[in-house]
Each structure stands twice: as C-alpha cells, then as structure tokens.
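In practice, a research group might receive sequence data for several interacting partners and want a quick structural hypothesis before committing to experiments. The following worked case mirrors that situation: the sequences arrive first, and a predicted assembly follows.
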Amino acid sequence: MLMYRRLLAASATLALISGVAHAQDTKTAEGLRDKALLDRTAWEITEDLTTSIGPRIVGSPAMERAKGWGEAKLKALGFTNIKVEQFAKSSWTRGEESAWLVGPYPLKLNIVGLGRTLPTPAEGIEADVALFRTYAEMMAAPEGSLKGKIAVITQPMVRAQDGYGYGVAGVSRRAGPAEAAKRGAVALLIRSVSTSDSTVPHTGVTGFGPDVVTIPAAAMGVPEAEQLERLAKKGPLRIKLKLASTTDANDVAWNISGEIKGSEKPDEVIVIGGHLDSWDVGTGALDDATGVAITTAAAKLIGELPKHPKRSIRVVMFGSEESGGSSEAYVEAHKAELPKIVLAGESDTGADRIYSLKLPAGAQKHPIATTAGNLLAPLKIFVNRDPSAHGGSDIEGLEAAGVPSIELEQDASRYFDYHHTMDDTLNKVRPDELAQNVAAWASFIYLVADSDIDFRAMKPASAPAAH
Amino acid sequence: MLMYRRLLAASATLALISGVAHAQDTKTAEGLRDKALLDRTAWEITEDLTTSIGPRIVGSPAMERAKGWGEAKLKALGFTNIKVEQFAKSSWTRGEESAWLVGPYPLKLNIVGLGRTLPTPAEGIEADVALFRTYAEMMAAPEGSLKGKIAVITQPMVRAQDGYGYGVAGVSRRAGPAEAAKRGAVALLIRSVSTSDSTVPHTGVTGFGPDVVTIPAAAMGVPEAEQLERLAKKGPLRIKLKLASTTDANDVAWNISGEIKGSEKPDEVIVIGGHLDSWDVGTGALDDATGVAITTAAAKLIGELPKHPKRSIRVVMFGSEESGGSSEAYVEAHKAELPKIVLAGESDTGADRIYSLKLPAGAQKHPIATTAGNLLAPLKIFVNRDPSAHGGSDIEGLEAAGVPSIELEQDASRYFDYHHTMDDTLNKVRPDELAQNVAAWASFIYLVADSDIDFRAMKPASAPAAH
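A structural hypothesis for the assembly, expressed as tokens:
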C-alpha cells in the first residue's frame, strides 16, 4: 500500500510538469508505435542475416560477407551517409574439439571451447579432476594446489528477468581460466553459463591477450556438469580434453552505419544499434541479429515519415562485440563528434519483450519520463526510475566519454537458455515480441529526435529515499 | 453435453456391477497408492542407473555393467527368483560423426547417426542435396531420381499428449534410408524426430539387417533442418557427411528379472517392467531408466506388505528394446509358462504423469474398470474405455502369444523433446511425477495380483457407438 501511494504521488507531481513533447510529436510517436507492431521489417532482417550469412565470428569469411550484407541492407532500406569504418581486430578460429570422461567410465561430454581460449596440445590433455561447486570455492584453493589437474567448476546460473545471474555465474568463464592457471591447473572445464537444462554448451569470451597467463578452457552441457558432480561424490574423476584453434593478429573488423538525416539539426545525432558479429556456433539470431534488426527497423520506420525528426538518427552495426573492440573503435573514429551525440542506446539481449525503459541519470524527474511512460504503457513497458541505465557493451566507450544513454530493458528470462550456443537460431525468435521491441524503439527514439532535450544538462536526481 | 450425459450413464451402469475387489483389497491398494507418492525408491533407482552406469547400448561394456547392476538392485530390494536370461543380439557401436553444409557456405550441422546405420566411407560422402518437406514427398519421387544425391527430409513432428506424432514423423527414420536408397540416394539426412526446437539431434533405430538395402543416414537438429529449408528456396545445397560405426554379429544381451512371490497362486504371474538398455547418447534417463525404476519400485512396495498378494509379480528389465530382440527372447524363454502369465505391462514413455489406464480388450465393462477408476482418480488418471491397450515394445511378443496387457499411459507431451538424445538425462525427470507413476502401478497391479480376474476369459465388448 505504501508503494502504491508513492506511485500515485509521483504520477501527480510529474503530470504537473509534463508537456515537454508537443501534442503533434506524441501523436506521431504513437502512430509509429502502432505501425511497428504490424511491421515485418525486423523479422525479415533477422531471417535474412541468419539465413544468408549464418554464424559470423570476427575475422571469418562470413563476417566479410556480413559487411557487404549490412551496407546493402542499409542502402535498400533508405538510409543515407552509409559508412564502413575499419579497425584492427585480431581473430580467433575454432578447430576440432572434444572431451571425454575417461574414469570411472567413458562418457562423451558435450563441450565447446571458450571464445579465444588457448588450444590444448594436438594429443589433448588428460588429467585428474579437481571439482568445485562454485567459483568462490576454487578461489579459496591455494596457489599451486591444482598442479597438474583439470579444474572443473559446476556453479549454476540463476534465471532472472534482468539477466543478473549472468554477471554472477559468468565470472567462471571470464576469469576462471587465468585463476585456475594461477593455482597450477592444466585446463579448466566449467558448467555452461546457462539457465537451461540442456546439453548444448555455451561459449563466450574468456580472458585473453599477450599479458594473460591462462590455460585451455571449455564449457560443458548442464547435464554433464550435474553428472560430474554426482560422480565426484563416489570417487575420483579423470577427463581428456582436446581443443584446437588458430589466431590471426593482423585481422580487421568494421563498424557499419547509416543515417536518417535530421530535418532541422542534422549534426545532432542519436546513435542506436546492435552488433553484427556473432559467435561461430548457432546463427547469432538472438545475439545479435535481432538487435541489429530492431534498431534498423525502428529507424527505417522513422525515416518513412512525411517529415524526418529534427535530429539525425544513426544506426550502427557494431563489428566486434563478442571479443570486444567495436566500442573503443567507434569512440576513436568519432572523437570530434562526441559533443554532438545527444543519446546512445543498444539492443543486445535477444528479442523477447521490453519491460522497462531506463533514462540517463538526471532525467528521471524530467517530463520526458512521464511522456515516455504514457507512450510505452500500451506496450507494457514501465519507466524505471532507477538511474542506472547501461546502454550495452558497444556504447560503453560513448558512455565513458560522456554521451547519455538509455536502456530499453528486454526480458532476459529465456535469453540465457540459448545465448552463445548452437541453439541461438531463428526459431527462438518470437515475431510478436520482436515487433514490440521495434515499436518501443521507434516511438521513443522519435520523441527524443524531434525534441531539444539535452540529457547532458540534467543534473542527477538526489538519491532516492530508502524503501 | 452429449458426451457428459454418456459418461454419467456409463458410471451408473458400472456402479451397479461393481464390487469385484474386496473392500480390504481396495483399502490396501489405496494405502500403496498414497505411500508411493512419498516413496523415494524410483528416484534412487533412476539416479543410480543413470549415474553409476550412464548410457548403455546393447553390446557395450556399460550394458555388461548394467546387467550386474540390475541383478544386485533386485536382490537389494528383496526380490526373489532372480534370473539373467541371455540371448543372442548383434551389436552396433558408433564412431566419429560429422556433417557440414559446404554450399552455399560452410555451416556445421549438429547430427547423430541413426541407430544401426551403415557407415560412410572414411573420407565421407559429399553430394548435392535433394530436399523434401515430407516423407510422402520423397516417396513420390521415381526410382533412380535421387541418383548420387544426399536426400534430406525436413518433416516436423507434431506434439501430442499420446505421442501420436512419433508414429507419423518416425517413418522417415525407420524406413527413410531404404526408401531413399531405392531412389538412388547415396545418403539420407532427416530432421530429428523431435517435438523440441533444439539443435540436439535424435537418434533411434533404422531399418537394418542382411536383407535391407540401405544407405548411411543421420538426423540433424531442428534449427539446422529449418535453415536448410530456407536456404533451399534460394539455391542448391551441398552437404558433406561422415559416419563411422562397427558391428559385432556375435554379441549377446540379457533379460533380467526378479519376483514378489504370490501368497496363494505363485505360478500365476503378472509381468511388468521397463528396458535396461538405452541409446549411446544421453544417459537413458527417460528412456528407460524411469520405466525400470517405476515398475521395480512399485513391485518392491507391494513386496513390503505384511502379506503378499495371491499371484506373483515379476519385474523384467528387458535387455534390448532399442534395437529389438528382448520381446522375442522373452517369449521364447517362457513358452511353457505363457498360459500362466495373467497380465503384462511396460513403462516406456518417460516419467511424466500417467493420465489414462487402458485395460485389456473385453475388460472395459468389467467391474475392475470402475474399481480401478475410483482407485486412480485421486492421481488424476481416468480409465480409457477404448480397448486399444498396447503394452509396449518389450511385451509385444507376449501380447501376440495371447497374454492380456494393460497400458498406464504417460503424458508424452514433453517426452519427444529429449527422446534418444544427449539431453535424455536425469535433470529432465520430475520426482513428483515419477512418484505418481509408481503410485498408479503399485496400486493397480496389487489389485489384479490379489484377485482372480481372468482377462483372457473376457469377451471383447461390442464396438463403441459413434461419437
């Protein structure tokens, strides 16, 4: 009840200072919103990218084809000022991989090498297992205590709407190999960072680079991890792991962009996008063909209006999210322009429905919060008053450089069932939820693009009262 | 409404002729039912078999370990007259397998060779694709028309509570390779016979033997099949398939059994069971560790009663269901005893809840139908009046020899998501539903075991009125 009265009070306060958007703008935004729900563009983009190109890891021939695809797509959809910005990015190519439990009895384990992992020797690594139920349990093991062993971490990931469990469980993947190496392990096998109960293993980048002392590392299916846990209670385990891969330090990647040119202040730019690269398993449907599709389709719908909004909208297909690099490259290439980038946002958590809008810090009590709340309510999206918007990996560089960012938070309950696996495929995308995403992006971005709102000028609100 | 009135009329009629079971029997059966819901034996058997033994294909060292496991388990649970009946069964062992789409672009396909398939040459088979959306579409292709091609069938399977879709879609797996061979194909790749949307491929036996002219054949994941369908609309496809396997014509298998000896007519026997063998992928949890566990736990609970029922209950762990053989071997070994086997039943559709009891033909209007209906109603099981009970693959031989059979029909809605895959693992078993299965088997089998009911003597009811 207390919470309910607070919400009423907040609404009343905001109603008083509302009215930032002209009535005509709101009407246009609502029209975009409703049109987007029936628009097929995002579905067609997703289907075309996943089918015509397939998986597209940085440095692969597929990624080179994706570059051409992206340029052609932006052109075909009426974008202008199309750019392909190349940057240096080393590549990593997966070879043959396998793992077997060899004792107490032979059992094939479904595994995938972590992204950028070191390979094993060609004959593989066979060793006794040191099994840890959590990452913290392994961290408590003294240096040298895992000498000659294969470390196994079986920590599960918690399903949460906001994807919070990914950060918690993901540390095994990101830092696990280097930490296991410190303790003397010869290889690391983790339970997939996954909310599913499936055998399909999840890859994803791990610590790499010339300064990282690490060991070969892979992720196994969830049933395999649970089987090892049960078997470890009965006696010692022994595993054989083979991982092959090659790298090319001199490879390149590209950030590709196109614009809907602003009608009054074309040099003021809103940057939105997703990432074009994917892992080499599955077809990168939810990660992140749909992000590219949602933002591209949203901008395209705005571009089809009789009159473009005041400011320009730029869609960026980032070229190296999975292994990092596109964010830094984008900032580097747009240094001079940074003060004119008025807002940034990325769609990179699949295609399930958006449930929350987070505004840049300081905007929580600005009338745009109420206007946006009214606009998005029919899509079942609330405005989250918590000023913690994180726009996505590819715009972290922009954020660090002072560019305000928004977050249109997607329901991640199902996302980590498929994330970074062979099951990240078109049949996991729900067309109606995809369209709801486009409706939110098109209508909200239009509202900001046709306004003079300066998020940079807003002071962060005081800390919210304890509740 | 019409259906509702008919049900009322049927209940009334049956109530009049009810009373076959003594009140004490019904009370004992109800006690077993309620006790079983809280009993952990079936879970412990399932966990132990899948963990300690793992996958156990006929002819494997694991299956030999499973034989010892089965004997020891029956002994430990108090069964008597334990037998290990050996029979000849050729074995088939899977080797390395892989498949790649090589044109229009390289894409790894998640595949599994069909059970008992021929291998490809060591270098694999690479050929152009002839894609068919249904099995019937391929059957319509003239002989010789697939010469030199890899045939691909992408027919999906329909999800249905009674598993009906398995029969429809499964023909691609069972007969597809031989039919594709007739038309000149060099290999066959089918969409997995699966209700899931997962990349995990489903194996299962295909036509084999000295008289079968066939070709190497495998099943691919569902997303892969849908990807090939979409790509086939754009242009020609080319696939490379590698399958390795070995066979041993002189191998053996075992039917293992133990009894709860009847207190008055021990020579009258009720045969129940599941199959101990599994495919070599996953750990055969739902297929069929749970069937073994459900029937063993049910009989064990009956065996713990202060007084055993009149007739004997025999639990059989059949030794070669997946590739066939245990049913015939069982009949052959028990020829002399057949007239004394008063009823047979098998649990072999996973561990999800039972929703229907089908009685032997002729028993639909016998008072046992009403007694059983009352007994099972709290478990949310109805008595299906359709006289079409099919007891399961391993008791087909008994049925053909005139042994009456029952079916405790499990909800198969989810079963074919995991069936014959690496995902058939313990974490797909729901303990509460497993216990509901045990409750149904224990209480119903007790009722028949402590009765003089002679299903053989019942005349099949006249055909039901059209409805």
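Before designing any experiment, note the following. Chain B has two domains: 18-89+251-457, 95-247. Residues 95-247 of chain B form a domain with the Glucose Oxidase; domain 1 fold (CATH 3.50.30.30).
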